[in-house]
């Protein structure tokens, strides 16, 4: 038996791989089972197979442990079933699932929410009836299944307390024996405790006796025991006590068995209350009880109660079982009976409206049947009704009232207006289209369009007439001939008429037994006639679908589909689409709904009777999906014979109803119908649903399975193409998963080509990696390419997919596809161009890679392919000339040296062009030409002045020239050479030039740089190092000479062959600069043994004369200063000892007459007080004398407060030629005295 889950699909796990040999059983438990020996004896009696007792025990043990109770769709137990997969589900006394059965499938159904996810690993169902006390459940599980239960239900203390509780004396809620009520806090009395204990013993004994006896024993006795026990339990046991439930269950079963319906109903209601307390409303166990109560209510004639129960369980049952079949309709007034309002009526014609169908009985009655099976009937004609046609809420009929010689009567009825029990007859018209037409030529067909402005009537001689205008409001109708009967003698009798309205045109189909034609009208004018390929049909073997203006006609060989719009658009189109449905069978009737075509066919009966060897087959096709949706046999009646007054019960004629889905190409349904020999079945549609009026007068409706049920069946049978067609039509979200399953199925069969085509349909819904992994093998690379191409076509590919597709093309060596790939690559989202180029280059496809790089303007990559892979240097230089300068520079940096080697002339031209344009990076040029100095010098000489000033270029050329001179070995340089080199040096490259000059020992450049940088100390040291005394003498920087005089003198003392003139010139320079005392210099010179006194005699004599003059001047200055001191002492004495008279008359600041208050100083200056305060910063000093005093103190004239006196003094001391005289001057001026504040 197969298994499935109502909910999410179960994952593949170990339980799905189980076999019968994997099932567990318990030998000790099995052999001790009371029923085992009985079963073994029965088996031996009825089975002749030689099986030993050990195997029998194993078989019985595995079946007893792993079987489920087999139930029907109303959860009534009808046997046992084994499902090996579902036998792996664990037990729970509080189950999450129940096991139900649909055909040969076991279904795992949730006890709670139907949308809950169920898998074998997570689902739990009850191995036993869980509606028992915990100890009793555990005992049963141990005895039968050999395990101790400790499930969620056993651990649920609240649930267990309710199951074993007693009724509170005060509030009737649950309380334990001797305990306190948790609701009202009332403590159980001792008397009540004793009563509860006694009641418990009685209840246990009763339950054990009932369970032990099973269904054996007299039902009267069982019922009496239960009734007595329930009386004793009343008011003692809690209303939801499980012992009370067990007794109620046995009482309910016994009462039903004894047909005591009233007590059974009472016990059933109490059972329902208890089960609803412990179980979910969706639990199948609860549904089973409700179904039993519904049956019980019907037996008690309580139809409303029965309907209430059935309506509660119906949605759940439909979800679980998918009740889809040809359902016999119940009488709405009495659900216990079939609907048979049309019993013994022969339906002549019918037409369907919105929410109702009009059925015309041959003897003139018309029935309006609504969806709710409400019937309105009236007698439209006294003699016979031939045909009727509906246009919205108006319909036309033709028939015979038996008056005026049997002349045909046309009536138009208004369904919106009723008089008494029939609709209002708007028009009563005796059809008289031609005076020569005989009365016997009856009108047998009629059709009116939806706008009520065209109506056609057909006659027995196949002539057709039409009238155009406001038909429902016209009092008289004017007829025009559309088809002459005399011209259509070979067409057979007229079968039907139908009008299709397309834009402003009318198309009238005329269906006869041997022909089919259509007439196109523009208003009231006939434009043309079309004769179609269908060779006519029998009555009721055609159907018109107004929503799409399509006529469907069937004969013995084919079913034809005529689209009216095609005939309006084309003048020559005559043929129709056709399907070979029911080919070779005699067709009795054809009807359609939205998706299906139903055919009633006549076939030989499988079991022929003495009266007939034929049967009718009703087949319903799905035209779109092209499959048979339904088929069943039905009672056959030969309508050419007079109906029998007394039907025969022995007729073997059968009708088969088959429903085809033509588009999806499958049979949707097929079944045999109730048999009655004298009345053929009649099919019709009501609100796009197919109904069958059976021969016995009952009414059946085709209830289509829900889509998910259809798909499950088709997938189970591996009819993937059909499932896909259905899912497409209904726009099912499962469509893409079906494609995936179909692909998986084909893949397992090794049909990789078709498998990948199914996977291609899943793009956008199934992760591409799932499919790609399956086809990575080299032998399936072509299929992988197809998938990846489709992925790109839908613009759902990512960069990795594009790279993978490219790799696949490379492995297939598909050059053409690679070229197309490059052409279409700009449409690929996330296309990694660089990675693709790398892959092509690595796979030895340089030409393709170069084309791809050129398309995406990867010029550097393109040139690198030419240089590295193709080695086409000429093409590279040619392409390089057309690139912008910045890109040329980038390329030269990488491949310039190689091109210089193979394309030197062209490369020099490119470099010169870059330099001329001025957009060149000199650094790159220098890097390129570093190994070719001649080219570098050439480019420098030919460059413009602006470029020649580039420091990097000048420095590079300078290095080249210096290296060249150094390699020549020349020691004496020509003035031109020195000039050329020195012209390459400027302030911006002094540092580099100096380093190069040192490296290549080019002294003129070193001297020039040091001079221009004013680095005299370094220059002097360099000149000393080189022995250039005359150059030193030419220098006029005394500061540097002062710092280096010791080094100069030391050098002279060590040098041999010293020119005396140079020595004297140097000493004179030192003496004039006062760098050092001559005696110190002479002391140093005395260390040179080669130096003669005569060489420096003149220098010594001149120095002595200069010293004598300096001494004489100093003595003279001393005498003058002594005189000044004497005068100053006299002034001081006068100020200290004598009275000072202040007679100043003018202010020294503003030069105006002096007025009091005034300030007088000993220095003979006077000020207005306000002038003094304005000009003076110090109240004790004369403003006029302050600058002089400051100059005496600070000869530099700067404010000692603003600068450091020490630093100023230090600086003057360093620069002074006579430091001692400077110090004496500072002391005499009071520079070192403290400044008064």
Task: Summarize the structure in words.
By secondary structure, this protein is of the alpha+beta class. The chain contains 44 helices and 43 strands. Strands 33, 34, 35, 36, 37 and 38 form a six-stranded mixed β-sheet that branches. Strands 10-41-40-39 form a four-stranded antiparallel β-sheet, with no helix packed on it. Strands 13-14-15-16 form a four-stranded antiparallel β-sheet, with no helix packed on it. Helix 19 (781-793) packs antiparallel against helix 20 (799-812). The protein is elongated and about 175 Å long. It starts with a strand and ends in a 9-residue tail after the last helix. Mean pLDDT is 78; it is low at 4-16, 607-612, 635-652 and 1191-1203. Residues 1104-1145 form a coiled coil. Residues 1147-1185 form the RING-type domain. One of its GO terms (molecular function) is protein-macromolecule adaptor activity. It comes from Acrobeloides nanus. Belongs to the VPS11 family.
Summary, kept brief:
With 1237 residues, the protein is α+β, with helices and mostly antiparallel strands. The chain is built from 44 helices and 43 strands. The strands form 13 sheets. Strands 33, 34, 35, 36, 37 and 38 form a six-stranded mixed beta sheet that branches. The chain has a four-stranded antiparallel beta sheet with strand order 10-41-40-39, with no helix packed on it.
Q: Helices and strands: which structural class?
A: alpha+beta
Q: Shape, please?
A: elongated
Q: How large, in whole angstroms, is the Cα Rg?
A: 62 Å
Beta percentage is 15-25%
Mean pLDDT: 78
Number of helices: 44
Query: Unreliable runs, pLDDT <50, ≥5 residues?
Result: 4-16, 607-612, 635-652, 1191-1203
Query: Termini distance?
Result: 122 Å
Quaternary form? single chain
Number of strands: 43
Please give the share of residues in helix: 40-55%
Main pleated-sheet profile: 6 strands, mixed
Coiled coil: 1104-1145
Membrane topology: Peripheral membrane protein
Family: Belongs to the VPS11 family.
CHCR repeats: 759-905
């Amino acid at each position: 038996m197969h298994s499935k889950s109502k909910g999410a699909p179960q994952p593949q796990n170990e339980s799905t791989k189980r076999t019968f040999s994997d099932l567990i059983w318990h030998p000790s438990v099995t052999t001790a089972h009371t029923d085992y020996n009985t079963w073994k004896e029965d088996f031996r009696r009825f089975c002749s197979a030689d099986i030993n007792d050990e195997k029998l025990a194993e078989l019985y043990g595995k079946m007893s442990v792993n079987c489920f109770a087999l139930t029907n769709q109303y959860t009534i137990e009808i046997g046992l079933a084994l499902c090996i997969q579902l036998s792996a589900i664990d037990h729970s006394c509080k189950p999450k699932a129940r096991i139900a059965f649909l055909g040969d499938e076991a279904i795992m159904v949730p006890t709670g929410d139907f949308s809950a996810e169920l898998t074998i690993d997570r689902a739990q169902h009850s191995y036993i009836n869980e509606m028992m006390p915990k100890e009793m459940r555990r005992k049963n599980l141990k005895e039968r299944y050999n395990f101790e239960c400790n499930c969620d239900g056993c651990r649920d203390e609240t649930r267990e307390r309710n199951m074993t509780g007693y009724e509170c004396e005060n509030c009737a809620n649950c309380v334990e024996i001797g305990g306190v009520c948790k609701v009202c806090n009332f403590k159980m009395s001792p008397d009540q405790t004793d009563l509860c204990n006694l009641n418990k013993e009685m209840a246990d004994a009763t339950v054990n006796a009932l369970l032990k006896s099973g269904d054996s024993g007299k039902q009267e006795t069982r019922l009496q025991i239960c009734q007595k026990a329930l009386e004793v339990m009343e008011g003692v046991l809690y209303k939801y006590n499980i012992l009370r439930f067990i007794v109620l269950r046995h009482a309910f079963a016994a009462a039903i068995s004894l047909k005591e319906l009233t007590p059974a109903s009472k016990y059933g209601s109490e059972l329902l209350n208890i089960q609803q307390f412990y179980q979910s409303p969706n639990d199948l166990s609860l549904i089973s009880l409700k179904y039993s109560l519904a049956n019980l209510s019907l037996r008690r004639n309580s139809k409303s109660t029965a309907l209430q129960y059935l309506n509660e369980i119906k949605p759940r049952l439909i979800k679980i079982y998918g009740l889809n079949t040809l359902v016999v309709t119940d009488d709405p007034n009495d659900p216990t009976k079939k609907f048979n309002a049309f019993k013994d009526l022969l339906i002549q014609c019918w037409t369907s409206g919105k929410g109702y169908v009009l059925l015309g009985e041959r003897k003139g009655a018309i029935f309006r049947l609504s969806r709710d099976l409400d019937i309105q009937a009236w007698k439209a004609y006294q003699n016979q009704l031939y045909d009727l046609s509906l246009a919205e809420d108006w319909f036309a009929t033709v028939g015979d009232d038996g008056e005026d010689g049997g002349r045909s009567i046309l009536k138009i009825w208004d369904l919106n207006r009723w008089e008494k029990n029939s609709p209002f007859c708007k028009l009563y018209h005796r059809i008289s289209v031609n005076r020569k037409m005989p009365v016997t030529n009856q009108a047998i067909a009629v059709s009116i369009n939806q706008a009520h402005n065209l109506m056609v009537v057909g006659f027995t001689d196949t002539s057709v007439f039409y009238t155009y205008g406001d038909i429902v409001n016209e009092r008289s109708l004017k007829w025009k001939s559309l088809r002459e009967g005399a011209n259509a003698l070979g067409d057979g009798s007229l079968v039907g008429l139908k009008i299709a309205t397309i834009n402003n045109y009318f198309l009238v189909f005329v269906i006869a037994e041997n022909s089919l034609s259509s007439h196109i009208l523009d208003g009231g004018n006939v434009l043309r006639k079309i004769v179609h390929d269908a060779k006519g049909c029998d009555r009721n073997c055609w159907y018109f679908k107004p929503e799409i203006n399509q006529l469907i006609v069937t004969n013995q060989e084919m079913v034809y589909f005529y689209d009216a719009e095609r005939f309006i658009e084309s003048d020559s189109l005559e043929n129709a689409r056709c399907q070979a449905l029911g080919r070779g069978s005699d067709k009795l009737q054809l009807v359609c709904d939205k998706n299906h075509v139903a055919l009633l066919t006549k076939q030989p009966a499988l079991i022929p009777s003495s009266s007939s060897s034929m049967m009718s087959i009703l087949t319903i096709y799905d035209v779109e999906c092209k499959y048979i949706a339904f088929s069943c046999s039905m009672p056959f009646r030969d309508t050419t014979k007079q109906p029998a007054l007394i039907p025969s019960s022995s007729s073997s004629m059968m009708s088969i109803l088959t429903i085809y889905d033509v588009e999806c190409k499958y049979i949707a349904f097929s079944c045999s119908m109730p048999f009655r020999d004298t009345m053929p079945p009649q099919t019709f549609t009501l609100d796009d649903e197919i109904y069958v009026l059976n021969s016995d007068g009952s009414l059946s409706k085709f209830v289509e399975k829900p889509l998910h049920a259809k798909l499950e069946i088709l997938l189970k049978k591996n009819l993937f193409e059909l499932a896909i067609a259905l899912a497409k039509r209904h726009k099912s979200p499962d469509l893409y998963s079906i494609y995936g399953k179909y692909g998986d199925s084909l893949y397992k069969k090794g049909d990789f080509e078709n498998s990948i085509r199914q996977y291609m349909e899943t793009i956008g819904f199934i992760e591409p990696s799932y499919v790609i992994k399956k086809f990575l093998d080299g032998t399936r690379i072509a299929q992988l390419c197809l998938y990846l191409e489709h992925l790109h076509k839908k613009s759902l590919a990512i960069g990795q997919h594009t790279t993978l597709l490219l790799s696949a093309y490379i492995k297939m060596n598909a050059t053409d596809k690679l070229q197309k790939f490059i052409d279409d690559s700009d449409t690929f989202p996330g296309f990694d161009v660089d990675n693709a180029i790398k892959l092509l280059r690595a796979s030895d496809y340089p030409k393709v890679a170069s084309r791809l790089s050129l398309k995406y303007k990867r010029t550097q990559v393109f040139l690198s392919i030419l240089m590295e892979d193709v080695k086409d240097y000429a093409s590279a230089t040619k392409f390089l000339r057309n690139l912008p300068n910045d890109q040329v520079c980038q390329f030269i940096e990488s491949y310039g040296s190689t091109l210089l080697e193979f394309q030197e002339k062209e490369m020099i031209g490119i470099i010169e062009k870059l330099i001329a344009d001025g957009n060149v990076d000199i650094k790159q040029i220098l890097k390129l030409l570093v190994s070719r100095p001649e080219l570098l010098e050439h480019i420098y000489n030919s460059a413009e002045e602006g470029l020649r000033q580039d420091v990097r270029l000048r420095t590079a050329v300078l290095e080249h020239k210096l290296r060249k001179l150094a390699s020549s070995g020349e020691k004496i340089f020509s003035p031109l050479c020195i000039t050329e080199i020195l012209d390459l040096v400027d302030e911006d490259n002094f540092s580099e030039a100096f380093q190069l000059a040192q490296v290549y020992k080019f002294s003129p450049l070193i001297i020039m740089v040091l001079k221009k940088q004013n680095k005299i100390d370094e220059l002097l040291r360099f000149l000393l190092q080189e022995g250039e005394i005359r150059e030193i003498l030419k220098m006029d920087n005394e500061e540097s000479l002062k710092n280096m005089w010791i080094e100069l003198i030391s050098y002279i003392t060590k040098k041999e062959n010293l020119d005396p003139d140079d020595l004297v010139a140097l000493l004179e320079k030192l003496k004039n600069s006062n760098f050092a005392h001559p005696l110190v210099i002479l002391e140093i010179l005395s260390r040179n043994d080669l130096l003669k006194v005569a060489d420096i005699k003149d220098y010594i004599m001149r120095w002595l004369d200069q010293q004598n003059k300096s001494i004489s001047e100093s003595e003279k200055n001393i005498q003058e200063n002594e005189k000044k001191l004497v005068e100053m002492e006299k002034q001081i004495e006068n100020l200290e000892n004598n009275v000072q008279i202040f007679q100043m008359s003018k202010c020294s600041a503003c030069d105006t007459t002096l007025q009091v208050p005034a300030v007088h100083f000993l220095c003979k200056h006077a000020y207005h007080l306000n002038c003094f305060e304005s000009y003076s910063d110090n109240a004790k000093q004369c403003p006029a004398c302050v600058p002089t005093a400051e100059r005496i103190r600070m000869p530099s004239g700067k404010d000692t407060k603003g600068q450091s006196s020490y630093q100023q003094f230090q600086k003057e001391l360093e620069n002074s030629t006579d430091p001692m005289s400077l110090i004496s001057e500072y002391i005499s001026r009071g520079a070192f005295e403290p400044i008064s504040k």
